[in-house]
Protein 1
Amino acid sequence: MTQDNQAAVQPVNLPEILEEVTKLCDLYEKALMENDLDTLDALFWESEQTLRYGVGENLYGISEIRDFRKGRSGGSPRRDVIRRQITTFGKDCAVCDLEFQRPGAAVRGGKARPGSARLPAGRLPPPMCR
């Protein structure tokens, strides 16, 4: 690796950033299971550039995401988290990969939550997650 490339490499899993992102991902999962729409909305970037790719729908923009959540009777189907891997890159970027299983289901599902970035307001939301 050249010196220029080394300068571009961000430290992985800085403890304080990993702790911050872990708390936010925990908050997201709790809000998702409790159908806490206000918290879910607060955790997503308020932009029409926000994307949500779901099992049966693709949503483009925070307005579509909010409308989908409001129209989903009872909120997200229950799921048990089997494994979660959070990786941070520097102080401003993180990825959360989640493996889960629905109660009674024979197969496991997964969700990658890429693209979290520290916004100008200073908070680091979980990646644009579902």
Protein 2
Amino acid sequence: MSDERLARVEQACSELVAAGEQVSFDAVAAKTGVGRATLYRRGELHAVVSEHRRRGAEALTLTGLAVQLDQLRQSVEAMAAKLRHHEELLRKLSRSPTAKRAW
């Protein structure tokens, strides 16, 4: 029953987010038929609802968007650094006298 309840809570949170509605304990309780007290009392259920609430709140704020943008920028910079490193290795290999003999 606990796994089924957890799945229902996760599904309800996802549906609320997809519909653009606010994720709240009241809304999740209404959608799932699980009591608000149970959502608060059960650690795993509380964590699921809280995480969806946090993600939903962050996504709609300028700060949340700025954080996501910064994370994307850092990822692109890391990929560019790795690409430069690989290009340098290829240049060294192509200049190497042993590499020319192998070809």
